[in-house]
Design brief:
The protein has 18 helices and no strands. The chain has a domain of 239 residues. The protein is globular. The N terminus and C terminus are likely disordered. The protein is mainly alpha-helical and 480 residues long. Helix 11 packs antiparallel against helix 13, helix 13 packs parallel to helix 15 and helix 16 runs antiparallel to helix 17. 86% of the residues lie in helices and 0% in strands.
Length: 480
């Protein structure tokens, strides 16, 4: 038991650090792309990636989740499960690739976009099999190799992109740098299975085993498909309805908001096991833990949203003056950020308390609402319409999830007073930053805003010294 707890702590540390480094590096080369390519070519590049990202889930269809769960139960059966999964994924990879090729031609995308999609298909297939291999590695309670590889992947993209742009290469060559990184990730994960875990990643067509793993994967597939479509479909719809320039401009708020989501992702990675344990053993502690998780999510997200809203014009100028059209889309995306953050502990609570089907239902409702809203708003308001859809659908996600919280906890969590105090502290911080916007250096403004926010939290009693002591004590226990 002690060894397992130590493994969880190490894996959480590796995963969190890797997420931070990934987001920093990817945001760095995205800024480089934005400043060099311009909105039109940037829009084509990310239209191709968004399209293949949506369809990549049709190759995996939830198999990776099944592999991690089933192999973790019995490591000796790793060969059994992996070979059956690969037997399913190989034909799915071929069929999905053909679907994407057909779709991109039927929808009459520009020639350059089609070429980028063809190149991105290679990444889609390689990354899907890499996910499968690392899912097996997770089942052996190891995230170190995956965390390291994800950072190296981003470094390969960054360094090769710097070389390509220095040599005057265009957007096609940048997609090739992504393929090179995907190739590295594929072979690295393959070798980890082969040499470290002694699992040979070969397919085996035993139909009874294939049927068994397929039936296990289906419940995972629904949520994964809906979630992936919700994340990337807006970029594809924007490209088709409003054009490549609008899609390129939209990538600025999309990337910034997406980069910030490593915070709740890492938080939930540690929160989920605790919620699951308390659901079975200690319902009163379940309510306390969930309430604190919601408060901490608000403490992190509200100052980012308000501070980012105030300084959105300065943030956008980092990417060059060709992206001034992204200021209001960024503000709308930041308005959605607190709802995004708060939806993570709510979704984690539903999954931990046997409400995973409800989570899937909520995601499907939000996806349908997103498609309908984008069809209505993008033709009228372009990038602003797509960003408004993000804000509205994240509010909808919170409403759908929160409707189940009371029935799980047995009572409504006491959140209103704490959330209002946090909002007041974040509002005071936003006012202080607004009054000092004459400072050109965005990093100085961020530091100033952080200082004011911390003071305001103590002033309105949204944070106490006992909370700080509790957090420090928690880290000391983990270290011990």
């Amino acid at each position: 038991m002690v060894e397992r707890v130590a493994n969880i702590a190490r894996n959480t540390s590796y995963f969190t650090l890797a997420l931070i480094l990934q987001k920093v590096i990817s945001l760095t080369y995205f800024t480089l792309y934005a400043r060099t390519l311009g909105p039109a070519d940037l829009g084509k590049y990310y239209t191709a990636i968004s399209l293949t990202s949506i369809f990549s889930i049709l190759i995996d269809v939830g198999l990776s989740n099944v592999l991690t769960r089933e192999i973790a139960k019995d490591n000796d059966k790793a060969h059994h499960w992996l070979r059956a999964a690969l037997a399913i994924k190989l034909p799915l990879a071929l069929v999905t690739s053909l679907i994407v090729v057909g779709l991109v031609n039927v929808l009459s995308f520009p020639e350059l976009t089609r070429q980028l999609v063809y190149l991105s298909i290679a990444c889609m297939v390689l990354d899907s099999f890499t996910l499968t291999f690392f899912s097996c590695s997770r089942a052996f309670h190891n995230l170190k190799f995956e965390s390291l590889s994800s950072v190296v992947f981003q470094l390969i993209v960054l360094l090769s992109s710097l070389f390509i742009l220095h040599q005057g290469g265009g957007v096609r060559w940048l997609m090739l740098s992504l393929i090179a990184a995907s190739l590295y990730n594929f072979f690295y994960s393959f070798l980890i299975l082969w040499r470290y875990w002694r699992v040979k990643p070969w397919p085996a067509w035993h139909w009874l085993e294939i049927k068994k793993i397929w039936l296990l994967a289906v419940p995972f597939a629904g949520y994964a498909i809906a979630q992936r479509a919700y994340t990337y479909l807006d970029s594809v719809m924007l490209a088709k309805i409003a054009g490549d320039v609008a899609t390129g401009v939209y990538q600025v708020p999309f990337k910034i908001i997406n980069a910030l989501q490593f915070l709740p992702m890492a938080f939930v990675a540690s929160l989920y096991p605790a919620l699951s344990l308390y659901w079975h053993n200690n319902r009163s502690q379940l309510s306390v833990t969930f309430t604190r998780a919601m408060q901490y999510s608000a403490i992190i997200s509200l100052p980012i949203a308000i501070g980012g809203w105030v300084t959105a014009d300065k943030l956008v100028m980092i990417f060059s003056d060709g992206y001034t059209g992204a200021i209001w889309p960024l503000r709308l995306g930041l308005a959605a950020l607190p709802f995004m953050f708060l939806s993570y502990p709510i979704g984690s609570l539903l999954n931990a308390c046997d409400r995973q089907k409800r989570n899937t239902y909520n995601m499907l409702v939000v996806l349908i609402a997103s498609v309908v809203a984008n069809l209505f708003l993008i033709p009228r308001y372009g990038v602003v319409g797509a960003s408004l859809t993000v804000a509205l659908t994240n509010i909808l996600m919170i409403i759908l999830g929160a409707s189940q919280v009371k029935s799980i906890l047995g009572q409504a969590p006491k959140l209103l007073s704490g959330l209002l105090r946090i909002l007041l502290a974040a509002g005071l911080m936003g006012l202080a930053v607004w009054q000092t916007k004459f400072i050109d250096n965005i990093f100085v403004l961020v530091a100033w805003g952080g200082f004011i926010y911390l003071l305001a939290l103590f002033l309105v009693k949204a944070l106490r010294w006992s909370d700080i002591a509790s957090i420090i004590k928690s880290f000391r226990r983990r270290a011990a």
